[in-house]
Amino acid sequence: MEKNRFLSAALALTVVSLLAIGIIAVYSTTYAKLDNGMLYKQIVWVASGIVMALVVACIPKNLLARSSKWILVVIGLALGYLMVVNVGNALTTKFLKFSLASYMPLAQVRNGACRWLSLGPITVQPAEFAKFALILFLSCYYGMRDTAKVESWKDGLIIPGSVAFLFMALILGGRSLSNCVITCLLMFLVMYFAGVKLRMLMATVSILILAGVCVILLTPFRRQRIVNYIHHNENSEVVVIGERKKAVDNYQLDRSICAIGSGGVTGLGIGQGRLKHRSIPESHTDFVFAVIGEELGFIGISLCIFLYILFMILSFAIARQCTDRSSALMCMAVGAFLPLQAMMNMGVVCGLFPTTGVTAPLVSYGGSSIASIMLCVGLVFNASRQQTPEDQEDDERQTECVIVPSGK
């Protein structure tokens, strides 16, 4: 247990460090507006996320496994509702010239898409919580099946894949391609760690890539993003799309790269960034690493990368100590998923990937993102509370050592 305690303490310190960097970044991007409302909200969300992680860490393993299906159903219903609202809103706007979303209860529209549910004083994005639900469900599903079933097409791919594909379709119906891609990667991570045959995964990847290309080509604004990405070095270039000509718009990406470059090695100092307020849209969410690069420089970015890698190493180390297969899968899935999402976010900020709505885990502003990630972190802490194989051997030795009183 001593080793698990050390790993848990190191993991907790890593998570708290990333959360602290996020709070500092949110303060830096919002203090000049003379409104600390976003900073206070971020602090409340961080505190709430820590409480959620502790609650999940203390829930008995069997109760988590039994609850996984119900959590999946609740999140699925929320995503289905938002998909209906989005599809209905698109149809009524196009043919009837009015917005259906404004008449639907709980639905909240931002930037032309309905991805949020308004629950009283808080706003929730169900697509973020789908990550936690799928990690929990898939890990418990594969953990309760032997190797022969995991390697079969039916139990290893078709059944769990159908559930994951349904979720991806619901998320995509809610007009969130970035979360759909992350969910897809998450599914493959769990399947790979569970032992699903590689040829089965590759066949599925081929189908999903083809489907993704079709979705992008059939959606004008997503197609435009790809065009902007391809021509991101041609700021004033005019590119032909179909029979029309459009100017390439990479203002956000160009400002982001300039911010990172101006930071140099040590950065300009916390709060001293010049490009974050007016030049970089969404500098507190999707492009928060641009602000970190400008104010903390290469050292600040390197520290974040180091913390994400350390999180992965510690999560995998805890997985090796688990005696339960489901818990080990949870640790490995969360440990690989967080750095992967962070890499995608940094790639977008640096221009390596097309611009999407992928947040930086534990760093970007946003309650749903922090809450969902902290729930996933809680799964790792839950696994760390289990006995290690060495502890079980010690308990067995003590059980075998029975003291028999001597008789006269």
Summarize the structure.
The chain has 408 residues and is mainly alpha-helical. The protein has helices at 2-30, 37-58, 61-96, 126-143, 147-150, 153-173, 177-194, 198-218, 220-230, 251-263, 288-321, 325-350, 367-384, 389-400, and strands spanning 107-110, 113-119, 122-124, 238-241, 244-247.
Separation of termini? 42 Å
**What is the helix fraction of residues, given as a range?**
55-70%
Radius of gyration: 23 Å
Q: What would the average pLDDT be, to the nearest integer?
A: 83
Q: Which parts are unreliable, with pLDDT below 50 for 5 consecutive residues or more?
A: 235-248, 401-408
The side-by-side strand order for the widest beta sheet comes to: 1-2-3
Topology:
Elements (H helix, E strand, L loop, with lengths): L1 H29 L6 H22 L2 H36 L10 E4 L2 E7 L2 E3 L1 H18 L3 H4 L2 H21 L3 H18 L3 H21 L1 H11 L7 E4 L2 E4 L3 H13 L24 H34 L3 H26 L16 H18 L4 H12 L8
Write up what this structure looks like:
This protein is mainly alpha-helical and 408 residues long. The chain folds into two domains: 15-58 and 250-386, no CATH class; 65-218, no CATH class. It is 69% helix and 5% strand. It has helices at residues 2-30, 37-58, 61-96, 126-143, 147-150, 153-173, 177-194, 198-218, 220-230, 251-263, 288-321, 325-350, 367-384, 389-400, and strands at 107-110, 113-119, 122-124, 238-241, 244-247. A three-stranded antiparallel β-sheet has the order 1-2-3, with helices on one face. Strands 4-5 form a two-stranded antiparallel ribbon. A hairpin with a 2-residue loop joins strand 4 and strand 5. Helix 2 packs parallel to helix 13 and helix 11 (288-321) runs antiparallel to helix 12 (325-350). The two termini are 42 Å apart. The model is unreliable at 235-248 and 401-408 (pLDDT under 50).
